[in-house]
Design goal:
Translin_sf, DNA-binding, 195 residues, Methane Monooxygenase Hydroxylase, Chain G, domain 1, mainly alpha, sequence-specific DNA binding
Length: 195
């Protein structure tokens, strides 16, 4: 073990210390980058371009980068707004799902099954409206289904599980895929168009 440490120390001391920066030029001091200035990003870009820190006009490359990042910022803002819309609908679906779950818990008491199912079935119309609202939002942004589907996937799995349980209590058969689509008013096999 001692020989290992000796060889490691010898290796460390025998090789010259080289900087990891492949650019040998000295970068602008950190204090210059951190000080507040009226120039903002253009000042930073001009300092990076000529290294002197003077307030020269920004280079065309810096202006193009600023414009590109402005576009990215707008895309991020739009994405955040869409995600908030989808999460709002998903939270409404979740609240209706909780109501259905609480009404189905009465099945464990000695209540008649049709009475319990009647209360739960009354909420399916609300779910249908929420899924049509969700489908409308997704249709406005084509090609973005898989980017955002995680925001409502868990709620949809819970809804389908509840529908399957209700269907089994009513018919003593398993719920088919087409029947779940019919009850919710959406097509699960067409995710890019509806859900």
């Amino acid at each position: 073990m001692k020989s290992f440490f000796r060889s490691a120390i010898y290796t460390k001391l025998s090789f010259p210390i080289r900087p990891l920066n492949p650019n040998p030029h000295r970068a602008a001091p950190l204090a210059l980058l951190l000080r507040p200035s009226a120039g903002g990003l253009s000042t930073l870009s001009s300092m990076a371009s000529d290294g002197s820190g003077s307030n020269a006009p920004p280079s065309p490359t810096a202006a193009a980068l600023e414009k590109q990042f402005e576009v990215f910022r707008h895309q991020l803002d739009g994405s955040g707004g869409l995600r908030e819309l989808l999460r709002g609908v998903a939270s409404e679906i979740e609240s209706v799902t909780r109501i259905i779950q609480s009404s189905l818990l009465l099945i464990h008491q000695s209540r008649p099954v049709p009475e319990v199912l009647e209360k739960a079935k009354g909420r399916i119309g609300e779910l249908r409206e929420l899924y049509s609202k969700l489908a409308g939002i997704i249709q406005e942004y084509p090609g973005q289904y898989y980017r955002y589907h995680g925001d409502w996937r868990t709620e949809t799995q819970t809804v389908v599980s509840l529908l399957a349980f209700m269907h089994y209590l009513e018919t003593e058969n398993l719920l088919l895929h087409a029947e779940a689509e019919e009850k919710l008013g959406c097509k699960f096999y067409l995710p890019r168009k509806i859900l």
